[in-house]
Structures are given as C-alpha cells and as structure tokens.
Amino acid sequence: MSAVLPYLCLVCRGAVVVVFALSAFGKLRSRAAYARFRRSTRLLTGLPEEPASALARLVVAGEVTVAVTTSAGPLSTAGLGVAGVLLCGFTWALARSPESGQALECGCFGSSVSATRHTAIARNVLLLGVVFGGLVSSHLATGAVSMRWDAILLCALAAVALATFITRLHEITSLFTARL
C-alpha cells in the first residue's frame, strides 16, 4: 500500500494544480471575464462593490498561489492547505448564498459554464476530497521513493482526467437532468 501513496499524491496534486490554474485563467483571460467574476462575487456574498472587488482579487491571488505551490515539491502541502481553505470558503459562500435558485456565472472554467448552486457545492466537496487525499497521501508517503517514469506519466494523465471531470461536472450532470 505504501508504494502506491506517492502515485496517489501525484494524481491528487496534479488535479488540484490543473483545476486551480484553469479557474484562475478563466477569470484573468480578459477584462470582461474578470468583471463577470467580480459581479458574481458581489452577488454571491452580498457585499458592497469595494469589499467584493477586494475579495475577488484575493480569491484570484489564492488560486494562482495554489496552482504554483502545489506543483512545487517542498511547498505542495502548503498549496494543498490553501486550496482546502479556499474551497471551504467557496462552499460556505455557496451554501449561504441568497441567489439559491439561479445559475452561477463566475467564469471559472470558461464563459459558457454556468452551474447550479448544488452542482457547484458538489464540485467543491469532490475537490475537497481530492485535496484531502493529497494531504493524507503526502503525509503517509514519507521518504524518498524511486518512481517509474511510465507510472508518473500515467499519474499525469489520471490527474488531467480527474480535473476534466471536476471542471465539467455541470455539463455531465446536465446530461442526466435535461428534460426531453
């Protein structure tokens, strides 16, 4: 079992890096995308314009920090910790949001993606599980381990597949909830 933990850690860390990098890029790719994110932050939190704008800047900085530090070996545990804190904050804001029946258009994973509140909460809980798996596996997989290059490549592919599933969860669930 302990021989598997370094690989599990790579998959979890890789998925977190991809998800947070895509999320930050989705918000920073244009002025309109960032303005959409600021507006959704204000609507989601109920904060006035200035505090919501400051919170939006802090969230994007946190997402970039997670993507960079989680990919760096010695800082990966800190990056996963920051990811967990951000996800708890996102989930809390979604759970208490006054906009319970509307779709969310934060632009995290592209301008066409709008998730329901429940789907966004489920996505965050799933990603929290990945973060937790990364933290636990990195803690338990202590010591230097010689890893096979082909297994590392497979871990990278698994991380991208997991990140794709997480970022496209709304589209996947809509296939099963669409009215015919």
Order of helices and strands: HHHHHHH
Please outline the major beta sheet.
none
Query: Whole-number average pLDDT?
Result: 86
Cα radius of gyration in angstroms: 17 Å
Give the count of helical stretches. Answer: 7
- Number of distinct beta strands: 0
% residues in beta strands: under 5%
**Spans of at least 5 consecutive residues with low confidence:** none
The proportion of residues forming helix, as a percent range, comes to: over 70%
User: How many structural domains does the protein architecture include?
Assistant: 1
Distance between termini? Answer: 46 Å
The dominant shape is globular
Based on secondary structure, the structural category is: mainly alpha
Brief synopsis:
The chain is mainly α and 180 residues long. It has helices spanning 5-28, 31-45, 49-71, 76-95, 117-140, 149-167, 169-177. The protein is 74% helix and 0% strand.
Describe it.
It is a single chain. The protein has 180 residues and is an all-alpha fold. It has one domain. It has seven helices and no strands. Helix 1 packs antiparallel against helix 3, helix 2 packs across helix 3 and helix 4 runs antiparallel to helix 5. The mean pLDDT is 86.
